[in-house]
Amino acid sequence: MGLYCVYSKIRKEIVMARKPVSKAKMPCNKPKRTTGHPKKSHIVKACKNGKEKIIRFGEQGASTAGKPKAGESKRMKAKRKSFKARHGKNIAKGNMSAAYWANKVKW
């Protein structure tokens, strides 16, 4: 068995292990952790003006600043400020963008 065959067999098992997302069953605008997803940490069904959209956001395993805490370090404050400055334009687009949800949930 070649290296490619082993890789594709492992990849196939990973893909098979993930549950498909049912858009109909998900509640609107309620983010949820996706521990089985290889790259994205959260999923949400964003609803606005009768439109529905599945959005995956957040880097899996990334250490984000989280919610502001009393006595927070300068490094974390700077990290939060940088994220908001870098993605401010996309955050302003509202709940149909991944940046909005990342800002709300992870930052």
How would you explain this protein's 3D organization?
- A hairpin with a 6-residue loop joins strand 1 and strand 2.
- The mean pLDDT is 83.
- Helices cover 39% and strands 19% of the residues.
- The N and C termini lie far apart (45 Å).
- By secondary structure, it is of the alpha+beta class.
Beta-strand content:
15-25%
The overall strand count is: 3
Mean pLDDT: 83
Radius of gyration: 17 Å
Helical residue percent? 25-40%
Strand order of the largest sheet: 1-2-3
Assembly classification:
single chain
Overall shape: globular
Derived from helix and strand composition plus strand pairing, the structural class reads alpha+beta
Q: Are there runs of 5+ residues with pLDDT below 50, and where?
A: none
Q: How many structural units, i.e. domains?
A: 1
Biggest β-sheet: count, sense, barrel? 3 strands, antiparallel
Number of helices: 3
The first-to-last residue Cα distance is: 45 Å
How do the SSEs run, as a string of H and E?
A: HEEEHH
